[in-house]
Automatic annotation (TrEMBL):
Domain Zinc finger CGNR: 159-200
Official protein name in the record: Zinc finger CGNR domain-containing protein
Organism: Bradyrhizobium nitroreducens
Amino acid sequence: MDRPPAMFIADSLGLDFLNSVATPVDTPVDWLDDGDGLIDWLAQAKLVPAEELDELKARAKPGELDKVADRARALREWFRGFVRKHAGRPLAVDGLRELGPLNSLLERDEMFRRIEPGPDDGGVLALRMKRRWRSPDSLLLPIGEAMAKLVCDEDFSDVKACEGHNCTMLFADHTRRRARRWCIMAVCGNRAKQAAHRSRLRNRQ
């Protein structure tokens, strides 16, 4: 399937994951609808190094990546329910009771620190966090990390749904006055302006 480039407009990768299914123009697009889509989305999100994606894709058994994409979509819809339930107000500690599926995913992670060459602009060596990519299922781990960062670092009072008609996209409103209303002004904002203009014309007739 030919997909347009994925959309990263939420100012939070955890919310961008929820926006990996959307209707950017007229036709719904699910960027995770199969294993190739999942690989492509992770590459665009820069959540997995390109060489690791290539290696996992080469090692995967037939249909294995499609099954991981199935799990990613199920995880996405579970997390969408959690975010929509709590959006618009500070997340309370009792929300932790609902996060069992996410904690279960995070517990499977295999991360470690390794000393590597430092950046070119100074420093001979650097301590970096690395991850073991043992199987295609490990592709869900950086997604879980992005979701966890949303839960722990974002003020859920700033999490909003786009006001566009039939738009399903979510975003974190980090504008100074917290006045953002649209996923993308050029899409949903303009549609709303055009609809309001047509409504005013009809009322004048």
